[in-house]
């Protein structure tokens, strides 16, 4: 669709910039009376310039080469104009200039995309999430430098081949923060972030097709650790001679009975503890990760920990005296070793314990658990929804009593006889 009434291109020399009898040559694009000028990085003597043909009138080899170059520039500018028309873009002199110089959307690069994403997501993403995108950016720059021998590529070069090559690079190269290569899910996380950025480029019309359309992210499911009732009892009744261990244990137990993450526990203040609709104490807070509001009735064990530290918190603005996440996790590992708990204990295990041992295994509906955890989708909660063998046994026992109220079934009798 033609969107302009007039369109002209002509070359001219800038006499105001004469130096050593040489003047620079410019291309002037005019669309509907509005101009845009491009320096062609070429110079010519004033006497050699033909003001009528807008070319060199010199018959020397140098003059011929310059005229061939000017003809090529003219043809390229015409082609840029045609491209914009074919793409139904609004035609302006500046748009043609940008297309010719490779500065419009069609010439956006991968690093342009990464920078745009990170700059515009500062007010949307949480600092921890944004930090992960910065790490992905570092891996992309390392990959470009080591494997493609360049500092950047055009977005149109972002292909399925690029993705699988980047995947193999992540799997085999040393990680940024560790000597060992990334594990599968770490690799998938970086590819997931690249995929989200490519989706953004698609919405911005910086690319025409999704390079991830034939690529599937393959996350490996891992059993998430949680403490059993007996392990919880062992932990709660333990006596510690090291103060930091006692505090780490108490913070962990508090999270086990509230389901709060480390950062959400750390940010609790006295204002977050209120009287609920039932007259009991509740925690009203917002999840740092998602911004979702959480309302959690305080169980007795959690209340006891709050009362224990009520007068011992140095900073009156904080509700609990929690150490840094790293120090807390280091203490929890030492505690697990001392108590012979054969699980990799970290603060996040408390959240799994709340979801599994404290709530779901005691018959709390998964919809309620989802609200308590501050999840935006029920599918997220289902990650935590392990059904313990004891609960399976109890539930099937109830079903058995309903189906066979008179006692043992024929099948169970036969099995018992075989065992005897």
Key descriptive features of the protein:
420 residues; 3-stranded antiparallel sheet; 8 strands; hpI Integrase, Chain A; mainly alpha; 11% strand
What does this structure look like?
- The protein has 420 residues and is mostly helical.
- It has 3 domains: 7-106, no CATH class; 108-203; 229-386, Intergrase catalytic core (hpI Integrase, Chain A, Orthogonal Bundle), CATH 1.10.443.
- The protein is 48% helix and 11% strand.
- The protein is built from 16 helices and 8 strands.
- The protein has helices at 61-86, 93-101, 110-120, 127-147, 160-172, 184-203, 229-237, 243-256, 262-266, 300-308, 325-338, 347-359, 366-373, 378-381, 389-403, 410-419, and strands at residues 7-13, 22-31, 34-45, 49-50, 55-56, 273-275, 281-286, 293-297.
- The strands form 3 sheets. Strands 1-2-3 form a 3-stranded antiparallel sheet.
- A hairpin with a 4-residue loop joins strand 4 and strand 5.
- Helix 4 packs across helix 6 and helix 8 (243-256) runs antiparallel to helix 10.
CATH class group of the largest domain = Mainly Alpha
List low-pLDDT spans. none
Q: CATH topology of the largest domain, what is it called?
A: hpI Integrase, Chain A
Question: Which overall shape is indicated by the principal axes computed on the Cα atoms?
Answer: elongated
Q: Bin the helical content.
A: 40-55%
User: Structural class per helix/strand content?
Assistant: mainly alpha
Instruction: Tell me which oligomeric state these chains represent.
Output: single chain
Radius of gyration: 34 Å
Order of SSEs? EEEEEHHHHHHHHHEEEHHHHHHH
At CATH's second level, what is the architecture of the largest domain? Orthogonal Bundle
Strand numbers in spatial order across the main sheet: 1-2-3
Major β-sheet annotation: 3 strands, antiparallel
Beta fraction: 5-15%
Between the first and last Cα atoms, what is the distance in angstroms?
Answer: 90 Å
Per CATH, the superfamily of the largest domain is Intergrase catalytic core
- Based on DSSP secondary structure assignment, what is the total number of beta strands? 8
Average pLDDT rating: 87
């Amino acid at each position: 669709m033609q969107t302009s009434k007039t369109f002209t291109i002509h070359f001219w020399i800038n006499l105001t910039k004469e130096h050593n009898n040489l003047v620079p040559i410019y291309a002037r694009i005019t669309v509907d009376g509005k101009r845009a000028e491009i320096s062609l990085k070429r110079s010519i003597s004033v006497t050699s310039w033909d003001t009528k043909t807008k070319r060199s009138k010199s018959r020397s080899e140098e003059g011929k080469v310059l005229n061939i170059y000017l003809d090529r520039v003219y043809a390229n500018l015409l082609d840029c104009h045609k491209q914009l028309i074919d793409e139904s873009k609004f035609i302006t002199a500046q748009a043609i200039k940008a297309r010719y110089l490779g500065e419009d959307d069609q010439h956006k690069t991968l690093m342009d995309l990464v920078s745009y994403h990170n700059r515009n997501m500062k007010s949307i993403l949480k600092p921890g999430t944004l930090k992960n995108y910065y790490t992905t950016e570092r891996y992309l720059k390392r990959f470009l430098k080591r494997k493609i021998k360049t500092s950047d590529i055009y977005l149109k070069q972002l292909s399925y081949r690029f993705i699988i090559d980047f995947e193999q690079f992540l799997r085999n190269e040393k990680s940024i923060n560790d000597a060992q290569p990334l594990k599968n899910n770490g690799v998938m996380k970086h590819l997931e972030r690249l995929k989200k950025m490519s989706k953004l480029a698609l919405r911005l019309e910086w690319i025409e097709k999704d390079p991830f359309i034939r690529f599937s992210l393959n996350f490996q499911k891992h059993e998430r650790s949680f403490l059993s009732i007996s392990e919880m009892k062992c932990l709660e009744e333990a006596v510690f001679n090291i103060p930091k261990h006692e505090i780490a244990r108490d913070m962990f137990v508090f999270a086990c009975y509230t389901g709060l993450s480390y950062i959400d526990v750390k940010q609790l203040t006295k204002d977050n503890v209120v009287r609920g609709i039932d007259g009991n104490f509740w925690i009203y807070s917002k999840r740092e990760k998602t911004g979702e509001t959480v309302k959690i009735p305080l169980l007795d064990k959690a209340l006891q920990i709050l009362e224990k530290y009520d007068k011992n918190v140095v900073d009156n603005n904080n509700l609990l005296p929690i150490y840094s996440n790293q120090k807390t996790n280091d203490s929890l590992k030492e505690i697990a070793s001392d108590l012979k708990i054969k699980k990799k204990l970290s603060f996040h295990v408390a959240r799994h314990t709340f979801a599994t041992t404290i709530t779901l295994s005691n018959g709390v509906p998964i919809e309620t658990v989802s609200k308590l955890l501050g999840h935006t989708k029920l599918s997220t909660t289902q990650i935590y929804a392990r059904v313990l063998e004891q609960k399976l046994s109890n539930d099937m026992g109830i079903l058995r009593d309903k189906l066979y109220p008179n006692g043992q079934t024929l099948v169970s009798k036969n099995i018992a006889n075989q065992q005897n």
